[in-house]
Design brief:
116 residues, mainly alpha, 61% helix, 0% strand, elongated
């Protein structure tokens, strides 16, 4: 197994020498120093698609919608007889409530500073 001379850094030059040793072809165009420098220059930091200022608003809105849908689910279950219940309506309202409560909880955690 090939180990670079400096075990701390594995840079483009060591990648090129490793590629040359493995393939034994000098005309390989997989890694070039120009490609490595272009990759380093084009790197962008990862950012959230949602602005951080909207986290509390989204948390409040989604939790409110999720709780309303959950309440309507419980009211439907308590007021309808066993013969009149619809499995599709129960699954739909349960899934919608679950999605809104899940994303509401996520944004609540993000708004409070717990980055998950």
């Amino acid at each position: 197994m090939y180990t670079p001379k400096s075990s701390k850094h594995f840079n483009c030059s060591s990648a090129l020498s490793l590629l040359k040793r493995v393939t034994q072809f000098r005309s390989t165009k997989v890694f070039r120093r120009s490609h490595c420098s272009k990759m380093a220059q084009s790197a962008k930091p990862i950012s959230s698609p949602v602005p951080e200022s909207l986290y509390p608003t989204l948390a409040l809105f989604m939790l409110a919608v999720g709780l309303v849908v959950t309440a309507s689910f419980f009211i439907y279950e308590a007021t309808s007889s066993r013969k009149n219940r619809s499995l599709a309506k129960e699954l739909t309202s349960g899934a919608v409530a679950s999605v809104f409560l899940g994303f509401g909880s996520l944004f609540l955690l993000l708004a409070s500073g717990v980055y998950v």
